[in-house]
Design goal:
Belongs to the alpha-IPM synthase/homocitrate synthase family. LeuA type 1 subfamily. Keywords: Acyltransferase, Amino-acid biosynthesis, Branched-chain amino acid biosynthesis, Cytoplasm, Leucine biosynthesis, Manganese, Metal-binding, Transferase. Homodimer. It is an enzyme of class 2 (transferase). This is 2-isopropylmalate synthase. The protein is an alpha/beta fold and 388 residues long. The protein has 16 helices and 9 strands. The chain has an 8-stranded parallel barrel with strand order 1-2-3-4-5-6-7-8, surrounded by 9 helices. β3, α4 and β4 form a beta-alpha-beta unit. α4 runs parallel beside α6 and α7 packs across α8. The longest helix is centred in the C-terminal third of the chain and has 17 residues. The protein is globular. The structure holds 3-methyl-2-oxobutanoic acid and zinc ion. 3-methyl-2-oxobutanoic acid binds next to β5 and β6. The site of 3-methyl-2-oxobutanoic acid has 9 residues, from β5 and β6.
Length: 388
């Protein structure tokens, strides 16, 4: 089994499903560029059949992004799948992600279909998708609450039709780490052709265990793809958080023995960009990206860290993009320092003219205020009408 873990980011699809987090096409493209900088393996850019706006966002991202695979979600029907393939035309690497619910509750009450009908529809969807694109992911929605015997039949059948990734979501965040890990392991053992596909985990955070469940899916279950979002953005209590799961794999390589491609020094900028774009504030004590994640307040801790950083730090702040020696911005600061801070804050202005305009306003403010804080800079770029 490979020791490389695929990081599948769904900030622009499941993250956007968060009430109040909808993003414009330009905002999505800017975040996709940051995800590419992070070296995310797969970017789920949206749900092409959901709206013309989503279709166009996926199209734009598919053309602009070269290093990550671009993916569109689609229900398990020919129309959605064809629309996804259309939006992905021109991508260097494209993936269609098709899904149908497999739990008794969802099949009976939501889909009003029998298990046999669901099985047939799943097979037909993957077969249709495979005629358009080679890289097909199949998700069993509410997979964790499904009957393992039935789910194994569905998975075996879709792998036989050519699905290359199998995702087993904990759609409602009901799982417990050990149970979820064993659920995936048991499924893999039940499915005779299981090693013909990469297994993936997709966990929601309703009980605060999305990261722990995803890691158990990898460690116990043998999954090799994790679906996650920046800042854990997502429906209800959110999804597995990219920054936490990636830093857990990196920091505890001794335990997991796995690698990820992620260039972690872009994590903080990605977190800020998503927070500023959606208006979802990151709590100060949030792991990895919260303002206090690397702050030491008590005397004993400060003393320890000054003597040896390892006493109270298990990761390096600079490894995830926090600047160690923060330059204080004021009226004597130059344009380069200003531009550098914009970058650290995840702000991308559209042109050099826009940077100049923001810099002029910054200088005006610095004449009135001795120290300029990050909040001041964000306020002035917002006042300039910049999007970031
Ligand atoms: O949570 C979920 O089940 C999903 C699927 C569509 C993958 O987001
Ligand atoms: Zn989801």
């Amino acid at each position: 089994m490979s020791d490389q873990l695929i990081i599948f980011d769904t900030t622009l699809r499941d993250g956007e499903q968060s009430p109040g987090a909808s993003m414009t096409r330009d905002e999505k493209l800017r975040i996709a560029r940051q995800l590419e900088r992070l070296k995310v393996d797969v970017i789920e850019a949206g749900f092409a059949a959901a709206s013309n706006g989503d279709f166009e966002s996926i199209q734009g991202i598919a053309h602009a992004i070269k290093d990550s695979t671009i993916c569109s979600l689609s229900r398990a029907n020919d129309r959605d799948i064809a629309r996804a393939a259309e939006a992905l035309k021109g991508a260097n690497r494209a993936r269609i992600h098709t899904f149908i619910a497999t739990s008794p509750l969802h099949m009976e009450k939501k889909l009003r279909m029998t298990p046999e009908q669901v099985l047939e529809q799943a097979k037909q969807a993957v077969r249709f998708g495979r005629n358009l694109i080679d890289d097909i992911e199949f998700s069993a929605e509410d997979g964790y609450r499904s009957d393992p015997e039935f789910l194994a039949r569905v998975i075996e059948a879709v792998i036989a039709e050519g699905a290359t990734t199998i995702n087993v979501p904990d759609t409602v965040g009901y799982a417990i780490p050990e149970l979820y890990g064993n659920f995936i392991k048991d499924l893999r053992e039940r499915v005779p052709n299981s090693d013909k596909a990469i297994w993936s985990v997709h966990c929601h955070n309703d009980l605060g265990m999305a990261v722990a469940n995803s890691l158990a899916g990898v460690k116990i279950g043998g999954a090799r793809q994790i679906e996650c979002t920046i800042n854990g953005l997502g429906e209800r209590a959110g999804n597995c958080s990219l920054e936490e799961v990636v830093m857990a794999i990196k920091t505890r390589k001794d335990y997991f023995g796995l690698d990820v491609n992620i260039d972690t020094k872009h994590i903080v900028a990605a977190s800020r960009m998503v927070s500023q774009t959606t208006g979802f504030v990151v709590q100060p004590n949030k792991a990895v990206v919260g303002a206090n994640a690397f702050a030491h307040a008590s005397g004993i801790h400060q003393d320890g860290v000054l003597k040896a950083r390892d006493t109270y730090e298990i990761m390096r702040a600079e490894d995830v993009g926090w600047t160690a020696n923060k330059i204080v911005l004021g009226k004597l600061s130059g344009r380069n320092a200003f531009k550098q801070r914009l970058q650290e804050l995840g702000v991308e202005l559209d042109s050099e003219a826009a940077v100049n305009q923001a810099f002029t306003r910054f200088k005006e403010l610095a004449d009135r205020k001795s120290e300029i804080f990050d909040e001041d800079i964000l306020a002035l770029v917002n006042a300039d009408g910049a999007s970031h």
